[in-house]
Amino acid sequence: MSAKFAVVKGFYEATRAGDGPAILSLLHPEFEARTAPGMPCGAGGTFHGPHEAMTRIWGAVAQEFNTAPYDESWQETSDGTIVVTGHYRGSARATKRAYDAEFVHLWRVVDGRITRLHQYTDTARWHAALEA
User: Fold this and answer.
1) What does pTM read for this prediction?
2) Is 81 in a helix, a strand, or coil?
């Protein structure tokens, strides 16, 4: 496993463990996240910095969902981008409805820290879980 893969793998492990400080330690101070438009909880869009991402993406989602990302396939492109595919699995807290949504994550790691995440996911599955 490359050093870049290990950093990204650490993110998935920290996320599944609900370890916010570990997630923050992996993110570069100039981290940028671009998440799928249409994500529930206001979590879709572009977010700058580790704390904004933690609050407006992962924190917002955690309030509404019991969820985690499960990584399945890994590739590194010629420009150094790490491409991970997998599934988000979990349930909406209010409805208890389970969901399973595919994702593609594009990661950039520089000097041992994550500088960028670009997320693609099936937002309709997220919204369906919220419907009573």
Assistant:
1) 0.95
2) coil
